[in-house]
Structure formats: C-alpha cells, structure tokens
Design goal:
By secondary structure, the protein is mainly α. Helix content is about 60%, strand content about 0%. It is elongated, with a radius of gyration of 19 Å.
C-alpha cells in the first residue's frame, strides 16, 4: 500500500528535487562568476545549506560542473521538436525557441560553453557525446528543410554551428527582469536565425515583436 497515498515525496524523489535545485543554483553561479570564480560555499549559501551537505550529492566542484553540463544537455535534448507533420524549417524554429527559453528560464541548467574546458578528458568526452545528439537533430532538421526547398542549400552542419553560435551566446547578455521576456527572446532569436537560413521566396517566419519593424 502506498504511504500517505503518495502525497509525500519518497526519499528518491526528494533526492532528485534537491539535485535539481543544486544543479540550477550551480549553473547560475557558474554563469555569473565562471567556474574558477565560484566556490562551493557560494552555491551552498545560495541554497541555504551548509557546504558539507553538498557532498551528499557531488564529490567536488569539478564533479558538480560535470553533473550540471549533463543536466544542461539533457534539457537541450528535451526541447527537440519531433513533430514530423511540420516542415524542417518550422521544426528548427520551434526547437531553437524552446531551447533558448530553457537556457534563460528559471529552471535553466545552462552554463557558458567555455567552462567545459575545466572538465577532465573523460567527462568532457561524455558531455560532447551527449551534446552531439542535440546538434545532430538540428542537422537533420536543416537537411529536411533543404530537401523541401525551404532552407538555403549548403553544408547543414556548418549552418547549425553558426546558428548555435548566436543562440548559445544569449546566456551572456540576457538579464532576467529586463525589457524582454523569456518567451520574446526565444521567439525572437528563433525567428532571426531561421530568417537567415530560409531560402528565397519563403514566406513570413513566425517570430516575436522584436523583429517587427517599428515606425
């Protein structure tokens, strides 16, 4: 029989919730101060716990960086649009919009990609392997869009790398509570990227008001 009719989280569920909170707080600290400028004490203080408590969940700061990277990649993969009824350009637009919103939203695990240099080779290889799954999905969307005549012909992976260069930089300049909402930024960047990739003659591409000319 379920205890408390499952109204109370199990020990495993509580652990998962605490890990998620830890990874989000760590990601925020790494984005703000960089890996080397962040101490475990800073993260513990942000969570309102003691530093020794952190060691129930991670071995050290480098292990925490690795776990956050893996959580960020999993989050990115979860934003992939799998709706095969849509054309490649629209799937790409929706994926980029969701991806950007996941990076700058309250539940973000995203870290500036340059921080991966602080990982040991084995961990870095694992992160890159998982990240390749996300990039490969974007390449597949570009190839689909090219086959449909909606995306400019060319090397699909090159196009994706250029798109991600613009997309991933959002964590460096976006500030919560600023003049643009998370949704506006996501839609705006997605619209900007996809307009740049669209083949001549492609009609209007959905985007935010940020790309609408003003008088």
């Amino acid at each position: 029989m379920a205890r408390w009719n499952n109204a109370v989280a199990s020990a495993a569920e509580l652990k998962k919730l605490r890990e998620d909170a830890l990874y989000r707080e760590a990601a925020k600290a790494f984005r703000k101060n960089g890996y080397h400028g962040t101490a475990l004490e800073d993260i513990a203080e942000g969570l309102g716990i003691s530093k020794p408590t952190l060691y129930h969940y991670v071995k050290n700061k480098r292990d925490l960086l690795y776990q956050v990277h893996m959580a960020a990649v999993a989050q990115a993969i979860s934003t992939i649009c799998h709706d095969t009824s849509l054309n490649g350009l629209e799937r790409l637009r929706r994926t980029i919009s969701s991806y950007v919103q996941s990076m700058i939203g309250d539940g973000s695990y995203s870290i500036v990609i340059l921080e991966e240099k602080s990982l040991p080779p084995i961990q870095l290889t694992r992160v890159v392997h998982e990240r390749d799954k996300f990039e490969s999905a974007l390449v597949e969307m570009v190839l689909q869009g090219q086959a449909e005549g909606l995306i400019l012909p060319g090397e699909a992976r090159f196009a994706v790398f250029n798109a991600l260069g613009a997309v991933n930089w959002v964590t460096k300049w976006y500030r919560p509570g600023g003049q643009w909402t998370v949704e506006e930024v996501g839609e705006g960047i997605a619209g900007f990227v996809c307009r740049g990739l669209a083949a001549p003659g492609v009609g209007p591409i959905q985007g935010s008001r940020l790309l609408t000319p003003t008088a």
